[in-house]
Specification:
The complex is a heterodimer of chains A (about 60) and B (about 350).
Chain A: H1 8-31, H2 35-57
Helix pairs in contact in A: 1-2
Chain B: H1 3-35, H2 37-44, H3 61-71, E1 76-82, E2 88-94, E3 104-109, H4 123-134, H5 138-167, H6 181-211, H7 213-228, H8 244-254, E4 259-264, E5 275-281, E6 291-297, E7 303-306, H9 311-324, H10 329-359
Antiparallel strand pairs in B: 1-2, 1-4, 2-3, 4-5, 5-6, 6-7
Classes of the chains: A mainly alpha (about 60), B alpha+beta (about 350).
Chain lengths: ~60, ~350
Amino acid sequence: MSRRDLSLVSIFAAPGVLFVLSLIGLVGALLEDGLWDGLGAALLGATLIVLAWALIRRRR
Amino acid sequence: MQTRTIRAWTWVHKWSSLVSTVFLLMLCVTGLPLVFTHEIEEVLLHQPWEPAHKDGDMLDLDQVLHVALSRHPGDVASFMSFDEDRPVVNVTSRAPDAPAGVYHFQPIDQTSGQAAPPVAGHPVMEFLLQLHTDMFLGMPGMLFLGAMGLMLIAALVSGVVLYAPFMRRLPFGTVRASRAARTRWLDYHNLLGAVTLGWVLVVGTTGVVNTLATPIIAYWKDTALKELTAAYDAPVAAGERASLDAAVKRAKAALPGMTLQFVAFPGSSYSTDHHYAVFFHGDTPLTTHMTTPALIDARTGALAAVAPMPWYVKTLSLSQPLHFGDYGGLGLKILWALLDIATIIILISGLYLWLAKRRKPA
């Protein structure tokens, strides 16, 4: 392979964003009720949606 | 990254994982049904029940205690807790010579003193919980699983470091599905690890904190609680105790606006030898998980102190929901289960990658 190496930023961009979203979701649902229960689950669930996307779209 | 650095991190990742994988798999497999304990027990233990005298007078707590102890003569009361959606008081007692961890647990209809059907504690769920908590080995088992949790954290950190060299030519999420099994499973392992990192780290870290529950509570008892109650040094024998019902009323008056959760009797693990420790929790989402005890002199029934919990007990209190996933409704529990399954796949694929590499060195 002769392609140039990816930078650390581009390697960790997506996992980093998912990491932050997960933590916000986990803590948000703990600190607040009602809306945040759904929002917290949605933020945490984003990780699984990205997972499904990668499994479908990034197969090769 | 230099080859030597990569080697070192590979070593950390390999050994922290190998040492802990079997135990982490056990924790994931038992944890899966445990996430739904409440729902499962609702089904398994369901039986229609009505209090005997729906609109009648309630027994006071001294009467409930008397009824409970009369069914197990010689027992000493340890805890009393209160159901939130039915007039039921749960009394936990034990024989003075009973081995550690052996208790009698009695849900009692507060309108009649009759036994009420249990709504928690199904033997199968209790078995899974015990396996998950300490593998039936008590404190050593708990601390051992805590050490396995630390191994997990080491595996996560080294996994993040190693992710960079592995992914330096692959866009995020790439799964080389048409390549050899080892390459394919490496990609699954990396992808699953990358997306679940936040959750696994939180559940792992809070799990480690939870394994320290017994020493944390013991430390609190020996330091903060002892200081507060230094003036009371003579144990109060069961026969000399003031009214429990009055003690709880006194405690409620000291902490208005809070919800009664449980009473720890003198000599139990959550109190001193001479106080009723009456525990309350708050009503906001955050303070629901945190308890504050009011200590009542068991001899006189007077308020001895209100004891806000120190930071380390609060940390333990917050680690519990973040580990159990029981604080955000069914949606959060389903996510807990799915992420738990993802973790199982990470563990098994990691093991497979190690075995495959051993068979055919790269």
